[in-house]
């Protein structure tokens, strides 16, 4: 490991020290197209047990996001990328908190709220 | 590592506190990366709103009745291809190859325009069919989420035009190269957001 490289850190995105820049994009493209086709197939097939389809779609989407982060944005957990990786981890954490937190709170509210019909009957 | 080892290997280990500031390229890239992550948090809030409201159709059309999967698949392919051509354009910046840059970034621009045209036509046909953003909470959330993504793509295309003008007038000076790297990050991040859009909005439609 080149000590100077580690000392300077590394910007996100493709790096001049990378030798296989174009190859990385082509590998990423192959993975991304495969995963996209799989997603569209999963959404319209009857081969998969229907209640499992949303889970399958979520898995394929997370996998494709991972492919984009690794092969297009070139973010990795390498020592010279510690800052980029930690920032990404925090971003993912906040995103999950907002999405799942909102869904949980709203589902709970919905569960505890009176239905519209009952509310109308009480007002009479 | 001891002083003797340092003499033998020729590698000097500078303590973290004495290393000094990182080069501008790294600082600018990292700063832009933080901006992109905060932008993705905006989208997280819009996704949360859409997920909560997607069932509230107020008697209007539901997601499953409105969306055409083939249309979305073509939009997805446009954005994916533009991400790759943008990557090749970034590599051309490293080689200071103006012709390759114009070729790849020109293709990125055209694919972006294709995407926006398809999205615009979808929006226009929905509004014409009476399923505009004011019809139900579901449609408001849909137009806000997908429209914000489309707005980002439009601003990205505007940015790309400015960058192509800068590279033709100013050449490959470090400042211009840095901005191209930031543009690449922006474009790839938009593609990641689109994965969420087509999975949750279009494929997850019930």
Shape of chain A: elongated
Order of helices and strands of chain A: HHHHH
Name of the CATH class of chain B: Mainly Alpha
| Number of domains as seen in the coordinates of chain B | 1
Could you tell me the strand content of chain A as a percent range?
under 5%
The global form of chain B is globular
Count the helices of chain B. How many?
7
Show the largest interface: A-B, 50 and 52 residues
Percent helix among the residues of chain A?
over 70%
What is this structure, in a nutshell?
The complex is a heterodimer of chains A (about 120) and B (about 210). Helix content of chain A is about 70%, strand content about 0%.
Could you walk me through the main structural features you see in this protein, from its secondary elements to its overall organization?
The complex is a heterodimer of chains A (124) and B (206). Chain A is an all-alpha fold. Chain A folds into two domains: 17-74; 78-124. In chain A, 72% of the residues lie in helices and 0% in strands. Chain A is built from five helices and no strands. Chain A has helices at 3-8, 21-44, 53-72, 82-112, 116-123. In chain A, helix 2 runs antiparallel to helix 3. Chain A is elongated, with a radius of gyration of 22 Å. The termini of chain A are far apart. Mean pLDDT of chain A is 86; it is low at 1-6. Chain B is mainly α. Chain B has one domain (24-203): Four Helix Bundle (Hemerythrin (Met), subunit A), CATH 1.20.120.80. Helices cover 79% and strands 0% of the residues of chain B. Chain B is built from seven helices and no strands. Chain B has helices spanning 3-9, 24-53, 63-66, 69-94, 98-128, 137-170, 174-203. In chain B, helix 6 packs antiparallel against helix 7. Chain B is globular. Chain B starts with a helix and ends with a helix. At the A-B interface, helix 1, helix 2, helix 3 and helix 4 of A face helix 2, helix 4 and helix 7 of B.
């Amino acid at each position: 490991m080149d000590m100077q490289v580690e000392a300077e850190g590394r910007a996100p995105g493709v790096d001049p020290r990378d030798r296989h820049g174009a190859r990385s994009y082509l590998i990423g493209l192959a993975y991304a197209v495969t995963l996209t086709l799989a997603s569209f197939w999963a959404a319209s097939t009857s081969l998969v047990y229907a209640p499992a389809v949303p889970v399958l779609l979520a898995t394929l989407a997370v996998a494709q996001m991972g492919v984009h982060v690794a092969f297009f944005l070139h973010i990795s957990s390498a020592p010279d990328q510690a800052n980029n990786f930690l920032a990404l981890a925090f971003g993912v954490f906040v995103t999950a908190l907002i999405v799942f937190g909102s869904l949980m709170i709203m589902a709970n509210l919905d569960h505890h709220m009176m239905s519209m019909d009952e509310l109308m009957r009480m007002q009479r | 590592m001891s002083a003797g080892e340092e003499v033998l290997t020729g590698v000097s280990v500078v303590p973290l506190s004495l290393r000094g500031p990182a080069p501008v390229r790294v600082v600018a890239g990292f700063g832009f990366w933080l901006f992109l992550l905060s932008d993705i948090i905006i989208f997280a809030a819009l996704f949360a709103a859409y997920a909560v409201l997607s069932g509230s159709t107020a008697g209007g059309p539901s997601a499953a009745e409105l969306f055409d999967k083939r249309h979305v698949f073509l939009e997805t392919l446009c954005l994916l291809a533009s991400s790759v051509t943008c990557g090749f354009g970034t590599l051309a910046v490293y080689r200071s190859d103006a012709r390759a840059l114009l070729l790849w970034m020109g293709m990125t621009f055209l694919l972006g325009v294709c995407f926006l045209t398809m999205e615009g036509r979808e929006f226009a046909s929905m509004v014409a069919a009476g399923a505009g953003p004011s019809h139900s909470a579901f449609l408001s959330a849909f137009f806000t989420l997908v429209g914000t993504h489309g707005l980002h793509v439009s601003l990205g295309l505007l940015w790309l035009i400015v960058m192509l003008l800068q590279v033709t007038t100013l050449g490959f000076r470090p400042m211009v190269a840095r901005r191209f790297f930031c543009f690449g990050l922006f474009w790839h991040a938009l593609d990641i957001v689109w994965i969420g859009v087509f999975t949750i909005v279009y494929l997850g439609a019930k």
